[in-house]
């Protein structure tokens, strides 16, 4: 690491950087051909309904979760609406609102295996903007000291000062302290990151193949169990004309159900294989379930297993939040806390996604929970009202924790009677 930067914490021009190549190709136009014969790349995968549904569901569910600044209070944490970073997280830059910003970050991480956010700071090193970068416009650089930097090419940085204050234009050098990066699996210590599309391309290829097979079956518009063969009773030209007429009679969706009358020159040869034998419905369902398993999205969110009971769906929703959404929000929370808060602020503040409203139970369930919370003293009346988005009330006891008067510690003396001062033993 640069000695001046380490000692004085100032942004100095790097003397030399051994630049690594771009870790991602231009999206969508390159990919590998799977064993099923289908080219697998980012754009192709998004054309499959299950892939699109899984990615869109995850990124939308995370983007709509509020981000909050929490302050340590005694042994717990409370939301701090007065912290200056609240405005930055609500409007991270001049182009995006919070929903779009988070949505782009999660989308890039899901489809390309990595996402980048450049932090623009003021002269006092406080963050002013959070600018998401296109993954294919960023290359990772490791210098001779093992320090990681980033080479970024983006028009969104033209009017801003970045890590190296003397740099201008679209191409910038960004220090790791000014970059937030989410990444998938890495085989080289975090220099590069592999996307899900690259790692399980065969699964996506098979899913795309079954989808294309079904589409071509509808395009051909036939449910035959054999093929047509010329019997040689007519010349080649006449036989071709009759074959073309037969194709027009049977092909395309608008001719579905038409009955074909075979010309004299054509015979029918049965082979005993039809669309049911191809098991397209079962194959497509299995492909959808495999994709849902990869992204850890419950099937009810993809329109499958609609017969599940409400209790089962509720359990799946809770599992989806804990095992799917949090695997993306947890590292983002940690990176935001690390990069946006100063060393002193980290002792008292943290950044968290507020999941309290993500899986909203029924009014009856919430009512029972809040009743117990107030009765047994782990929430106040105003805390309940705030959780429900209601205005706090100025009423005696509304901010106090209550405990039942008919309880005591096991093995202690009998509780005192509140009126007479005596005990309850008779």
Question: What's a concise summary of this model?
Answer:
The protein is an alpha+beta fold and 426 residues long.
Structural class: alpha+beta
SSE succession: HEEHHEEHHEEEEEEHHEHEHHHEHH
What fraction of the residues are assigned to beta strands by DSSP? 15-25%
Please give the oligomerization state of what you see.
single chain
How many extended strands? 13
Tell me the Rg in angstroms. Answer: 31 Å
Average per-residue pLDDT, rounded, comes to 79
Question: Strands of the biggest beta sheet: in what spatial order?
Answer: 4-3-13
> How many helix segments?
13
How helical, in percent, are the residues? 25-40%
- What is the approximate shape? flat
Low-confidence stretches: 3-28
The first-to-last residue Cα distance is 78 Å
For the largest beta-sheet, the strand count, sense and barrel status come to:
3 strands, antiparallel
């Amino acid at each position: 690491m640069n000695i001046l930067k380490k000692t004085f914490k100032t942004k100095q021009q790097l003397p030399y950087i051994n630049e690594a190549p771009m870790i991602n190709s231009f999206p969508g136009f390159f990919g590998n051909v799977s064993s099923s014969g289908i080219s697998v790349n980012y754009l192709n995968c998004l054309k499959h309904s299950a892939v699109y549904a899984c990615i869109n569901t995850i990124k939308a569910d995370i983007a709509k979760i509020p981000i909050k600044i929490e302050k340590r209070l005694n042994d717990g944490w409370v939301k701090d609406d007065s912290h200056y970073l609240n405005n930055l997280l609500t409007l991270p830059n001049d182009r995006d609102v919070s929903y779009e910003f988070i949505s782009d970050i999660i989308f890039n991480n899901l489809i390309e295996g990595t996402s980048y956010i450049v932090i623009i700071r003021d002269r006092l090193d406080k963050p002013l903007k959070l600018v998401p970068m296109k993954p294919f416009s960023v290359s990772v650089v490791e210098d001779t000291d093992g320090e990681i930097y980033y080479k970024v090419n983006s028009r969104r940085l033209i009017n801003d000062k970045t890590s190296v204050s003397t740099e201008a234009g679209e191409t910038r050098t960004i220090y790791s302290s000014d970059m937030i990066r989410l990444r998938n699996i890495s085989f080289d210590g975090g220099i590069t990151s592999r996307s899900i599309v690259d790692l399980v391309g065969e699964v996506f290829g098979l899913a795309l193949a079954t989808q294309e097979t079904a589409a071509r079956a509808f395009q051909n518009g036939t449910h035959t169990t054999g093929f047509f063969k010329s019997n040689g009773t007519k010349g080649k030209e006449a036989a071709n004309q009759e074959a073309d007429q037969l194709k027009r009679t049977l092909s395309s969706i608008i001719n579905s159900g038409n009955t074909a009358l075979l010309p004299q020159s054509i015979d029918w040869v049965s082979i005993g294989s039809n669309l049911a034998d191809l098991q397209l419905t079962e194959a497509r369902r299995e492909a959808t379930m495999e994709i849902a398993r990869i992204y850890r999205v419950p099937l009810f969110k993809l329109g499958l297993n609609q017969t599940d009971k409400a209790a089962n769906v509720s359990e799946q929703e809770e599992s989806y939040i804990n095992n799917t959404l949090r695997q993306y929000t947890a590292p983002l929370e940690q990176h935001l806390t690390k990069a946006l808060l100063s060393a002193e602020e980290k002792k008292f503040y943290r950044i968290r996604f507020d999941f309290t409203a993500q899986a909203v139970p029924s009014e009856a369930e919430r009512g029972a929970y809040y009743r117990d919370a107030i009765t047994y003293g782990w929430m106040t009346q105003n805390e309940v009202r705030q959780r429900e988005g209601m205005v706090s009330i100025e009423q005696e006891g509304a901010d106090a924790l209550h405990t039942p008067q008919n309880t005591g510690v096991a093995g202690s003396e009998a509780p005192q009677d509140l009126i007479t001062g005596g005990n309850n033993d008779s």
